[in-house]
Amino acid sequence: MSNLPNCPECKSTYTYEDRGLLICPECGFEWSPGEEASGQEEFVVRDANGTVLVDGDSVTVIKDLKVKGSSSALKIGTKVKNIRLVEGDHNIDCKIDGFGAMKLKSEFVKKNG
């Protein structure tokens, strides 16, 4: 049995390590192993419903979006797989079939269950 620290958010004892991060399966909080002592603000991206998104999630577009430089629009219900989270105004980096690489705002997507 490993001696991993409890989750700093919900105090759960069921934390596990994945790719250098500690993760809480109960509340979804992720942090670096040395971070709990520093009190550093965590980079968190939430979808339109407030659900926390993580790298590799699949999301669905909830609103028709105009695509800059294209005559077509990204339609409601478009599914996007394997997203990558980045800091900035458009905080989702992804590839969409028929459109290619693009950045989306998390407020216009919802996480697929």
Automatic annotation (TrEMBL):
Annotated Protein YjdM N-terminal domain residues: 4-32
One of the Pfam families matching this protein, by short name: Zn_Ribbon_YjdM
Sequence ranges assigned to domain Protein YjdM C-terminal in this UniProt record: 45-112
Superkingdom, natural source: Bacteria
UniProt similarity note: Belongs to the YjdM family.
Protein name according to UniProt: PhnA protein
